[in-house]
Structures are given as structure tokens and as C-alpha cells.
Task: structure prediction
Amino acid sequence: MAENPKLLKHLMVKAVLVCKSGLHIGGTEAGMAIGGAEGPVIKDAKGRPYIPGSSLKGKMRSMLEYRYKRGQDGDPCGCAQGLDVCPVCTIFGPHKTVRHELGPTRIIVRDAFLSEKSLKEWEAARSEGKDFTETKRETMIDRNTGMAYTKSLRTQERVNPGTEFEMNITLRIFEGDDQDRIVALVKEGIDLINKDYLGGSGTRGYGWVEVKDVQVKEL
Result:
């Protein structure tokens, strides 16, 4: 590909992400209320939970790397080979590779904010003085005695099941790109999130999500 390839178009991929179980993507503990969860979820300036674009992008990338056996020793792929060889580097950018001929990163993943439905639910909860999120308590159990370890109790804040977020992904299509292949890979990455989990503690039941109503249109 040319060093400065011609930009042909932008595509918008829109979808709705629904939490099927509690979702935890960690935020700051600064200003945590007394008795609140030790592990709060990330929120915007108004206190509304959201999903950072970096979390969505990182999960899509890692799942595609698993699928296509890219990356090495736990690091993201930096092979900087074209789409025919590496389905990851062209779309997401080669990791830590300073000079390459792939051109600009093709994908822009926006922060996912509450859908109109869930925003109304958040506003209603706030007006009634109720929590919009849930607090889950966990502890560590001694396998031999069946008793909880001393001081092992911890609390995690989670976004409630049923909460919806609006996903917005922009794809940049340059001259020479295989548009259909790029779109198909992004959709595959989304589908892999559905089959795996998002955020922390996924192997303990957190972060089961469904991304639905995927739409692709030219901007």
C-alpha cells in the first residue's frame, strides 16, 4: 500500500449491547461512598456507567488474535502483514511496529453510552434515590474446610443485567482495501464478544453480553 493511501469513505457500524449478566469494567475509587463497593464501575462525569471504546476494541482484537493465531507470548500482533496474511494488523494497527506499509488504522471504536431506554431508567433511579448498579459480594473459600478465609470478603459494583449501551464503530476504507473482508472481520469480532465475555471476572459469570441489531452504513 502507498505511504499515504487515498481515503475513499467512512463506514459506521452501529449496534446495541445488552448486559445479560452483571458487567464490571473498573473505574476509579476516588470519592467512593462509605459502604460502597471497593471495585466501582467506570462512570462519566454525571455518574452514568459507560463502556470505554478501548475495552471494546481490545476485546475484539484479542478474540480475533485467538481465532487466527496472531500475536506471540501474550502480546498483541505486530507482524505488520497485510489483510490476506494477518486479519488483525491492518484493521487495528500493528502493535509496537513503528514503520510499516499498512497505512492508517482502519477502526475507530467509540465509547458506548447508555441507550435512550437505559438512560431513562438511570434518571428514574437517580430521582428516587436508588442505585442504578448492583453490588456483588464475594469471598474466598478454603477447599479443605469449606469456610471463608479471614478478610477475604470483597465487593464489586456491576452494571445491572438488562442495561443497554449504544455501540458506534467507524471504519476507514482506503484505496486498495477489501471493504467486504474488513466489515466481515469486524462483525466476527463482535460475534466473538457475544460468545466470550466483556470486562473483568468473566470466568466467574460477569460480563455476559449480547450485541444485537448490527447495522452498517456509509457516512
Notes: Residues 179-195 form the longest helix (17 residues). The radius of gyration is 20 Å.
